[in-house]
């Protein structure tokens, strides 16, 4: 199995828990079977056991470490718990009669019941059997638990239920707002006269009347503790001041900028927050994942004092928080050089580690975080001499570079072929402060020209000329790769996967789905300008690239994020102008949907880069 296939297959596995010897994982074996696997203490895999995917919903309840299936039959709900050791336990409860006809289950989340066990909050709609399909009244929320009566609530606020807190007598609903941060509404259950309290941010975790939310994202994401009773919000990591935790002091950026991870008093302990969960039995501490200089690090944060304790997670690259149970939390790590791994964090901060399916590459060294001019970047050095370079541009634009298995391990192949890789956090990326993120808005060409010039200067100082340098980008990064060929005609060329190639058409399609995208695009791009150059991401401007540059666009015909048709039109225009451009199509969406598509997309991009750089 190739590395892209191996990595894709592993990413589909869910980290559930930890036993002696390593992680307990689950994956969908086929459309009707969920397979649970766990290691033995001696490294031999136990015989897996399967759970039939039946009923109306299947949920993993992290507090009880069990899968729970739900079957709704009229006013009767049957619930079955499937423990990870293969044992089963079932119970039933009667639901209130649906006033108009029948209940249809829309969603279910796990809660803590009043008796201290696991309860479940169901989102249901009341369908009239005599009306046309799809016609129903608004949502009803039903709280059920074994041995307890059902509690019903009709929410006043708009949104999807993310938390039901019996102790605080509130439900929390997340109102999604298209491209903007969600609005979170904590709605009282016990008194209709009590106002709904609201905050803006990404929901992370909640219990005992408190919640962890991520605010101020994506410019400067910060962890906040939200009181669900009175709506007060505080940032616990800011209360300890500059000495919040150990970690190297960061220096100001070369342009004198400051922000998260840059400037006095900052460092790994105060880098932008990526994710967090309460850890242990109460709400006194949280496991927090922060990103610092392109690498994720895990910390135990005392929510009262703000003191942060670093955890032992070296070589993890990117850390994805996958599970949070009373016994601890599970992390999935992925790195270009170190491969994949699993880590389990106990409530006291102890760390257990097990390798993933992708092994380390001992010939490679971890990337160095540096500044090219004023632009932050991760630089991956080949183990031998450097014969060419690839400047890699992430999607987004409001995302950032991390040491992870970008492009499904393609960096490894490039490095072993003598190609130096620069993962560029171009101006407009997240994680470097709000000013850095907003700086290129409506003038992307000027901002990216500065980034690109600084990068090419640094490569030239290393002996790599522009004609031995290619741009590689995906999604919006692909758009920048095409723009780069306009700005630097001596580049070898570019490979753009699923790029955005017509900003006006892209904005119109997005606004047709959600009108709020009109304001989002108008704030960032000069859509109204009659000049293609000022619109920047326009077919007329993007095809003013150098006449000898090889440009390959790789795009899935079923992409519903960026347009395959727009890419086809762009390449046709370029070829009419005599430019050596080509379009490679596959049947995937914006990203590959299965292991075969992952391998195929990987091979297409690899071969395209080899052609652009004339690699042996």
List its traits:
single chain, 616 residues, alpha+beta, eight-stranded mixed beta sheet, globular
Distance between the termini: 24 Å
Unreliable stretches, pLDDT < 50, 5 or more residues?
Answer: 240-266
Average pLDDT metric = 90
Number of strands: 36
Helical run tally: 11
Taking all Cα atoms into account, the compactness measure Rg is: 26 Å
Spatial ordering of strands, largest sheet: 29-30-32-31-33-34-35-36
Largest sheet: 8 strands, mixed
Dominant shape? globular
Beta-strand percent range: 35-45%
Find the structural class using helix and strand composition. alpha+beta
Helix content: 10-25%
Task: Please characterize this protein's 3D structure.
The protein is an alpha+beta fold and 616 residues long. The chain is 18% helix and 38% strand. The strands form eight sheets. Strands 29-30-32-31-33-34-35-36 form an eight-stranded mixed beta sheet, sandwiched between helices. A four-stranded antiparallel beta sheet has the order 1-2-3-4, with no helix packed on it. The longest helix has 19 residues, at 595-613. The protein is globular. Residues 240-266 have low confidence and may be disordered.
Please outline the helices and strands:
Elements: H1 3-11, E1 14-19, E2 22-30, E3 33-37, E4 49-52, E5 57-61, E6 66-73, E7 76-83, E8 88-94, E9 102-112, E10 118-127, E11 136-144, E12 151-153, E13 160-165, E14 170-177, E15 180-188, E16 197-200, E17 202-207, E18 210-215, E19 222-227, E20 233-234, E21 273-278, E22 285-292, E23 295-302, E24 308-310, E25 318-325, E26 328-335, E27 339-345, E28 351-355, E29 368-372, E30 375-380, E31 388-393, H2 410-416, E32 419-424, H3 434-438, H4 444-461, E33 469-474, H5 476-487, E34 493-497, H6 503-513, H7 516-524, H8 532-535, H9 539-542, E35 550-556, H10 564-576, E36 581-586, H11 595-613
Parallel strand pairs: 31-32, 31-33, 33-34, 34-35, 35-36
Antiparallel strand pairs: 1-2, 2-3, 3-4, 5-6, 6-7, 7-8, 9-10, 10-11, 11-12, 13-14, 14-15, 15-16, 17-18, 18-19, 19-20, 21-22, 22-23, 23-24, 25-26, 26-27, 27-28, 29-30, 30-32
Helix pairs in contact: 1-11, 4-5, 6-7
């Amino acid at each position: 199995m190739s590395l892209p296939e191996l990595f894709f297959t592993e990413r589909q596995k869910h980290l559930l828990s930890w036993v002696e010897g390593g992680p307990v994982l689950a994956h969908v074996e086929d459309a009707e079977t969920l397979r649970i696997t766990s290691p033995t203490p001696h490294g031999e895999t136990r015989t897996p056991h399967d759970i039939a995917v039946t009923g109306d919903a299947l949920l993993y309840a992290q507090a009880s470490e069990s899968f729970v299936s739900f079957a709704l039959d009229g006013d009767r709900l049957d619930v079955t718990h499937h423990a990870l050791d293969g044992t089963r336990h079932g119970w039933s409860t009667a639901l209130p009669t649906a006033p108009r006809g029948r209940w249809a289950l829309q969603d279910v989340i796990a809660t803590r019941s009043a008796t201290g066990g696991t309860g479940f909050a169901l989102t249901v709609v009341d369908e009239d059997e005599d009306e046309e399909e799809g016609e129903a009244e608004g949502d009803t929320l039903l709280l059920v638990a074994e041995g307890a009566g059902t509690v019903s609530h009709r929410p006043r606020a708009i949104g999807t239920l993310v938390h039901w807190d019996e102790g605080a007598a509130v439900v929390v609903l997340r109102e999604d707002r298209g491209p903007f941060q969600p609005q979170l509404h904590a709605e009282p259950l016990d008194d209709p006269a009590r106002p709904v309290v609201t905050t803006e941010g990404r929901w992370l975790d909640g219990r005992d009347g408190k919640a962890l939310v991520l605010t101020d994202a994506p410019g400067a994401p910060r962890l906040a503790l939200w009181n669900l009773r009175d709506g007060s919000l505080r940032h616990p990591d800011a209360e300890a001041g500059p000495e919040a935790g150990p970690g190297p002091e960061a220096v100001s950026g070369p342009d004198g900028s400051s922000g998260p991870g840059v400037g006095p008093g900052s460092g790994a302990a105060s880098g932008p927050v990526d994710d967090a969960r309460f850890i242990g039995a109460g709400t006194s501490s949280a496991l927090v994942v922060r990103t610092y200089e392109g690498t994720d690090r895990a910390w135990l944060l005392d929510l009262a004092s703000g003191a942060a304790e670093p955890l032992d997670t070296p070589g993890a690259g990117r850390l994805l928080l996958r599970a949070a149970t009373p016994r601890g939390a599970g992390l999935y790590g992925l790195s270009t050089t170190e491969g994949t791994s699993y880590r389990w964090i106990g409530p006291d901060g102890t760390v257990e580690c097990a390798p993933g399916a992708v092994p380390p590459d001992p010939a490679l060294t971890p990337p160095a975080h540096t500044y090219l001019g004023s632009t932050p970047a991760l630089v991956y050095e080949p183990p031998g001499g450097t014969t060419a370079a690839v400047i890699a541009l992430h999607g987004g634009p409001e995302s950032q570079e991390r040491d992870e298995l970008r492009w499904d391990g393609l960096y490894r192949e490039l490095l072993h072929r003598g190609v130096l890789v620069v993962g560029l956090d171009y101006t407009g990326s997240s994680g470097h402060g709000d000013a850095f993120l907003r700086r290129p808005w409506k003038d992307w060409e000027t901002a990216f020209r500065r980034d690109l010039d600084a990068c090419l200067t640094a490569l030239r100082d290393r002996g790599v000329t522009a004609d031995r340098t290619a741009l590689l980008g995906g999604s919006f990064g692909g758009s920048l790769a095409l723009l780069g060929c306009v700005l630097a005609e001596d580049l070898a060329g570019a490979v753009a996967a699923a790029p955005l190639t017509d900003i006006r058409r892209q904005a119109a399609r997005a606004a047709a789905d959600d009108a709020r995208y009109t304001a989002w695009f108008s704030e960032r791009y000069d859509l109204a300008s009659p000049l293609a150059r000022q619109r920047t991401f326009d077919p007329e401007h993007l095809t003013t690239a150098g006449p000898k540059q090889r440009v390959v666009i790789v795009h899935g015909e079923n992409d519903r994020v960026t347009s395959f048709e727009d890419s086809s039109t762009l390449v046709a225009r370029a070829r009419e102008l005599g430019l050596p451009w080509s379009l490679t199509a596959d049947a995937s969406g914006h990203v590959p949907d299965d292991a075969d598509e992952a391998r195929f997309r990987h091979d297409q991009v690899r071969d395209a880069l080899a052609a652009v750089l004339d690699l042996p």
